[in-house]
Amino acid sequence: TYGLEKPQGYSVSFHYNPHVEYHHFGSSHPMKPWRLTLTKQLVLAYGLEYTMQLYEPRPATKEELALFHDREYLDFLSGVTPQNAKPDDPAYLSFGFGGESNDCPVFDGLWNYVSIYSGASMHAADNLINNQSDIAINWSGGLHHAKKNLASGFCYINDIVLAIQHLLTRHQRVLYIDIDVHHGDGVEAAFESTDRVFTMSFHKFGIDRNGYPFFPGTGNINEMGPTDPANRGKGHSLNIPIDDGIDDEQYEWLFGTITDQVIAKYNPNAIVLQSGADSLGGDRLGRFNLNIKAHGSCVEKVKSYNRPLLLIGGGGYTPRNVARTWCHETAVCVGAQLHDDLPTHIPYIQAFQGAENGGGILYPNLHNTKRHDNLNSREHLQKLVEQALENLRYLEG
Ligand code: ZLS
Ligand code: CA
Ligand code: ZN
């Protein structure tokens, strides 16, 4: 068999349609698709495009999105525009648009936007199914809150559910891991009645000083999916609720300890990792104190399990840090180490010369931007791990 063996290293594919960048949720909205422009600029500046297969996937069709979403919802989503939207139309509110918070605004090109990021996740899953790559990346995806007939938390179409459904056509068991600071509720709900998908989310959980729960308010440790013993999906969700200010060492320990056990017990045939960058220190919406390399160590850990891996984006509301993190994690996938400073001048370089760094541009100390005291005691995290491992006993019989 010599000669036919693959060279050392992983075959990585990067699925990106640049048209996604030009969509705007509105000037005050925290979700900024142009963070993907910054990400791409860094990836190109480090020459990572020569280490991967690059694809520009087509937008998903309505037929493809209907594999998960309701027709009526898709008809509404594809037809609504800022010009024809009627905010007092009951359909508008019942599908999750507008409302008091306006998390999910109707903006120009909305249908185009959702079809592009969804098409990229489905194409990435397709590449894994066909053994075209070991790791497939779509930084424009990861919109984990969308339900089959509901927009929620900046998410309109659940590209993750669509990608996992596609992976299930070839793989018996898929593990979903979510390190976005928010609970991956939409993915969990979509697969609650099957044992072919195990969903796991690490997130901030708790009530704030203002009395509001941190969005979306679900994902406590005791939420493990259905409890009916006749339900195949019982025990196939694991939630890890975390308090403000968790640091690198604590998170890496929590993530490594629990994920190792899940792999050992569930033995998935493929893994989907939602790598939301709002779990970084200094994020506009997040509460954690993670540095880029600690966030990236989760990708490294998951890569080490050697299963087909779909790596997708998600939240991330301080754009320069989102770009740094996803560039670093792209490098982790291809097995490259990046210098903290760039040899060449790049467009948007000013964006990376912020106050938080001392010389380099890629790995600032985000602890310096600390705005959240660490409320996670050692004892509490120890108990959390014990409880999580206890929850996994459902998988034994
Ligand atoms: O996981 O917290 C909420 C919902 C509210 C409704 C009631 N009001 C008073 C408070 C907020 C409960 N929504 C979150 C959604 C977070 C979605 C995260 C997505 C993901 O990262 C995956 C991509 C929320 N947090 C912050 C905002 N919304 C928010 C902040 C600022 C603004 C501007 C635009 C819109 C309205 C003003 C908005 C939302
Ligand atoms: Ca999460
Ligand atoms: Zn988030």
Describe the protein in words.
The chain is of the alpha/beta class. The protein has a single domain (16-396), classed as 3-Layer(aba) Sandwich (Arginase, Chain A), CATH 3.40.800.20. 31% of the residues lie in helices and 10% in strands. It is built from 11 helices and 8 strands. The chain has helices at residues 35-45, 62-65, 71-79, 90-94, 110-129, 159-167, 185-190, 248-266, 292-303, 319-334, 378-391; strands at 12-15, 53-55, 135-138, 174-178, 197-204, 237-242, 270-274, 309-312. It has an 8-stranded parallel sheet with strand order 2-1-3-8-7-4-5-6, with helices on both faces. Helix 9 links the parallel strand 7 (270-274) and strand 8 (309-312). Helix 8 packs parallel to helix 11. The longest helix has 20 residues, at 110-129. The chain starts with 11 loop residues before the first strand and ends in a 6-residue tail after the last helix. The mean pLDDT is 94. Calcium ion is lined by residues 178-180, 182-184, 201-203.
Short descriptors:
single chain, alpha/beta, Arginase, Chain A, 11 helices, 10% strand, globular, binds calcium ion
Q: How many E strands? A: 8
Strand content: 5-15%
The bound ligands are: ligand ZLS, calcium ion, zinc ion
CATH class: Alpha Beta
Strand order of the largest sheet: 2-1-3-8-7-4-5-6
Integer-rounded radius of gyration: 20 Å
**Elements, N to C (H/E):** EHEHHHHEHEHEEHEHEHH
Number of domains: 1
**DSSP helix count?**
11
Main beta sheet:
8 strands, parallel
Name the poorly predicted regions: none
How much helicity do the residues have?
A: 25-40%
